[in-house]
Amino acid sequence: MPASSLCHRHYNRPVRELFTSPWDVNMLSKILIVVFLIAIVWNLGAGMYYMMTDKGDSDRTLKALTKRIALSVVLIVLIIIGILTGYIQPHGL
Questions:
Q1: Per residue in 51-82, pLDDT tens?
Q2: 19 has a pLDDT exceeding 70
Q3: Per the domain annotation, does 77 fall within a domain?
Q4: Is residue 74 part of a domain?
Q5: Which of 21, 45, 50, 79 has the fewest CB atoms found within 10 Å of its own CB?
Q6: Do 16 and 25 meet the contact criterion of CB atoms below 8 Å apart?
């Protein structure tokens, strides 16, 4: 392949495609969503555990459930940003 074609082979491609393949972006977004879901379920379980063991003596239940809500909101915002930027492509019904 001539050197001139190597220099210009990415000329018409979007910038984000120059640095990573679509498979990497899709896999990264799936991994990020799964990590957030695991953290949400973990905090839900922690809240239940604290509720059963503390019997109202501390605010650990409130803190665990607050973290769960915050993680859920952040996950929803990240999914919306991913859809708007094109990193996540929803499919219709």
A1: 899 887 889 999 999 999 999 999 999 999 98
A2: no
A3: yes
A4: yes
A5: 21
A6: yes
Distances (CA, A) of 8 to 3, 5, 17, 22, 69: 9, 5, 14, 20, 48
Residue 8 resides in a domain: no
- pTM metric for this prediction: 0.69
The answer to whether 82 and 22 are in contact (CB under 8 A) is no
Report, in angstroms and rounded to the nearest whole number, the Rg of the chain calculated over CA atoms.
Answer: 21
Q: How many domains does the chain have?
A: 1
Instruction: Examine residue 36 and state whether it is found in any structural domain, yes or no.
Output: yes
Residue 36 CA to residue 57 CA, distance in Å, equals 29
Residue 45 has pLDDT above 80, yes or no: yes
Domain limits for position 46: 20-85
